[in-house]
Amino acid sequence: MTNIFTYGSLMYAQVWQSIVSQTYRSTPARLAGFARYSIKNRSYPAIIPSQNAQTQGLVYYHVSDADIALLDKFEGQCYLRLSHPVELNDQTYIQADCYILRPEFEHLLSLNAWSVKKFEQDGLQTFLTHYNGFNKLKS
User: Fold this and answer.
1) Which domain holds residue 24?
2) Residues 122-136: pLDDT tens digits?
3) In terms of CB atoms within 10 Å, which of 27, 32, 43, 94 comes out highest?
4) How many CB atoms are closer than 10 A to CB 59?
């Protein structure tokens, strides 16, 4: 069982639950050393290493290997899953796997920081509509 740190569309229950097969406890968390940017012409973000940056997100606890396989498939070839310490709101740290944009795909990033508020207002529904095939991952 592995903790998973999410920072984009997977922070939203509608997206998360459409991919995984179980319900997991979650809590807000921060990942130091990574910056979150929008992907060009997409509503979702990616993170890349950035020394003085910090990314807010959500950590899901004790995710099963089967569900991690589904998440790996959902994230696809552009992302690499790596373990990093994340800080919880009580200022303790835990290890969590994070999906980080592979360096060879950094050309896909825009120069704009990804906006949670904009995604909630404009992008979430579009994302859910456009990526309606989540349940196919479970097949």
Assistant:
1) 2-138
2) 888 878 877 655 554
3) 43
4) 27
Output the pTM of the full model. Answer: 0.91
pLDDT digits (tens, 9 = 90+) for 77-123: 999 999 999 999 999 999 999 999 999 999 999 988 998 898 888 88
Encoding tokens for residue 65? 């290997």
CATH number at 44 reads 3.10.490.10
The two tokens of residue 69 are 């396989």
Share of the chain above pLDDT 90, in %: 74
Task: Give the separation between CA 13 and CA 109, rounded to whole angstroms.
Answer: 25
Number of domains in the chain: 1
